[in-house]
């Protein structure tokens, strides 16, 4: 019997990485700020939840993972995290943003990341450990309630802080919380709910018709768009990564990805999307540097769409070259047949 793969998940990995680059470069600000808002603050906010759900789905796709499997996954993310920290260390030194204060070191390593995008790596590690422990001791319904409570706490310090901070007791709570993390978008409050949704879909076979999924995606996305627009009306907003409707629209979108199966998959997408995510801020710096050296600032820096294309192409090129270097070959297979192992 041939093994079942989900090629659309592989494709979505690349799309998600493109959206992450868009969040950090605002590609359409030079042309249409409203469309740029739609791409970066609406579509873009689906990218990281997708990465979380994908990780959990393949971790739990054969049931509760063994300790050995959990240890292997955590070890991989720890290695990637440590390498990423070292990669951006020279940039931190150059920007004078490196701190040796104990509290800042703890916050950067476990909560905020040592560079603005590296929060994802400790978040996925902490989130996986939390979810694994919850599954060891509690039933699924209780776990769902707990991760939802954590997410709601995160909401109060993220998208809805501008509204809730006016309540003294809530402001006091988040004042204390923000002493140990700059954002609630982390492995304790943000990651667990999406990791749970990925694990849930891995352990339960849903057979919703594509028409039903399309309608569900459409309705949840409209709600998501309206909510995102609403939270940006606040006078104060600490961040906009978390919304009430984000888990819902993420759940339906990921469910749709699972409806498209094949005996083949696009293997390169997994590594390519990860390395693009890690490398793209460095490529932003390099593109800006090239623009200044060549006196092409008007195109490579100030023209937002050209800047986005330059950063994207350079990010994918360097990521692909790194994959070739890592594999030690001059070509990389774009998919595997079912007789080969799926290492997700």
List the helices and strands and how they pair.
Layout: H1 7-25, H2 33-42, H3 47-59, H4 67-95, H5 102-112, H6 120-137, H7 140-156, H8 161-164, H9 168-177, H10 191-203, H11 210-231, H12 246-257, H13 268-293, H14 297-302, H15 304-327
Helix pairs in contact: 1-3, 1-13, 1-15, 3-10, 3-12, 4-6, 5-6, 6-10, 7-10, 10-12, 11-12, 13-15
What's the gist of this structure?
The protein is an all-alpha fold. The chain is built from 15 helices and no strands.
Task: Describe the protein.
There is one protein chain. The protein is mainly α. Helix content is 68%, strand content 0%. It is globular and about 60 Å long. Residues 337-344 have low confidence and may be disordered.
Shape: globular
How many angstroms separate the termini? 19 Å
Major pleated sheet: none
SSE ordering: HHHHHHHHHHHHHHH
Number of strands: 0
The helicity comes to 55-70%
Summary tags:
single chain, 344 residues, mainly alpha, disordered C terminus
